[in-house]
Amino acid sequence: MHIARTGLRVAAATSVAALAATALTAAAPTSVPHTLAVPAVAGHTLVHGVSSPLTSAQCQTKWHINCYTPLQYRTAYDLNALYRKGITGKGRTIVIVDSYGSPTVQHDLDVYSKQFGLPSTKVKVVKWGHVPAFDPKNSDMTGWAGETTLDVEMAHAVAPAAKIVVVETAVSETEGTTGLPEMMDAEKYMIDHGVGDVISQSFGATENTFPGFAKGDFSSIKKLRYAFQDANRKHVTVLAASGDGGATDLQADGKTYYKKRVNSWPSSDPLVTSIGGTQLHLDDKGNRVKPDSVYNDYGSGGGGQSHVFTRPAFQNGVKNVVGTRRGTPDISMSAAVNGGAWIYSSFDPTAVGWDVSGGTSEATPLFSGIVALADQVAGKRLGNIQQALYDLAAHHAKSNGVVDVNDGTDNSYQGVTGYKAVKGYDLATGVGTVDALRFVPALAKEGSHR
């Protein structure tokens, strides 16, 4: 959500550039029915591009919101001590999948990094299919470019030495065309060719909008799971944003919210770690002035029960909350707009500068950085982290760096009653959030046993 505008390693002979060339002709699995795929966040314009980041006090004065830098996040999530130990994501690769991408993503990351005294990194771009030329007057393209910018800068903020690969997909502009098969094809190709240790997905579609859903036929979703099944076999961690509609989400028109509790895919998939949203309350140094709340301002952290997937074994310990269904989210990171992240972009020549962004599209790449750090500590890919995550939360959570969010705030949104953040697992924030200094080595240890 934009405020200011909205390892298996690659074989020695196979570069990402080569993958980009061959990706165009890669064979696709059997096609599936289409549904609408959109970024997990809907743009919300509040402020136009700013020449330089402001302090939270200045943001409060100007726009009545808090705004945070990656340096504040590093303090809030207890990351600095890890960096001093050399745990920076080095040797690991984060794959980010977005439609169209951004033509200025490398330049923008360089500016972002320089502003905050961070080392930049090379962003490798893979074009999947015939990605159309970027048109800054096309709102669909600029929306995805903003998403791409947010994804890359947030992943880099947490794992500064991790490699980043952006996969751009060529989604048709035709109304009702999905883009999801293309995204899954691209992900499977990256997995099969050893590119990436963790995949970050900041997009989703409401389960109810898939063909056949109303008749109880979930084949159109289940036929799309091949990339995740592949990732599970090859020990690649897959993340997805839980959405920004609280306990509800968008209908097929992409504008109207359901007046009932719904869930979205791929976040609801048991093979995917669902990332929800919190609101951080920080001072200018990044220290908490009060505990985290549920993200609920210009959007709300997605969460609830899947109507497609039954409760997976890793959630048996929280069956009193999720019942017989798969529950989301699994874990949460910063997502509130009031407490959003500064990002820099220049893809739109009419609004070059700094924006404040939020949404679970922010939280997801933040957590992808956490996984990259844990992979580095483990010295290998941790792959599917679900069971490890719930075990860490169930046993000695505090010493394992799992931070409960239990202040009683909720993810009610658009008139649909949501779920409260209470002690233990809940359908607003999952198991909670993280203290990375403890969580990263705990996840590396627990995940390595699987």
Percentage of residues in helical conformation: 25-40%
C-alpha geometry:
globular
- Poorly predicted ranges (pLDDT <50, ≥5 residues)? 1-37, 40-46, 172-177
| Number of strand segments | 18
Major β-sheet profile = 8 strands, mixed
Return the average pLDDT rounded to an integer.
88
Class based on secondary structure composition and strand pairing = alpha/beta
Count of DSSP helices?
Answer: 13
The termini sit apart by 35 Å
Estimated share of beta-strand residues: 15-25%
* Rg over C-alpha atoms, rounded to the nearest angstrom: 20 Å
What would you note in describing this structure?
- The protein has helices spanning 16-23, 56-63, 70-76, 80-84, 105-115, 139-158, 180-192, 219-222, 226-233, 319-322, 360-378, 386-394, 436-448, and strands spanning 38-39, 67-68, 93-99, 123-128, 163-169, 198-201, 203-206, 237-241, 264-265, 273-279, 293-294, 304-310, 325-328, 331-334, 340-345, 353-357, 402-403, 433-434.
- Helix 6 runs parallel beside helix 11 (360-378), helix 7 (180-192) runs parallel beside helix 9 (226-233) and helix 11 (360-378) packs across helix 13 (436-448).
- Strands 3, 4, 5, 6, 8, 10, 11 and 14 form an eight-stranded mixed sheet that branches. A three-stranded antiparallel sheet has the order 1-7-9.
- The longest helix is centred in the N-terminal third of the chain and has 20 residues, at 139-158.
- It is globular, with a radius of gyration of 20 Å.
- It is built from 13 helices and 18 strands.
- With 450 residues, the chain is of the alpha/beta class.
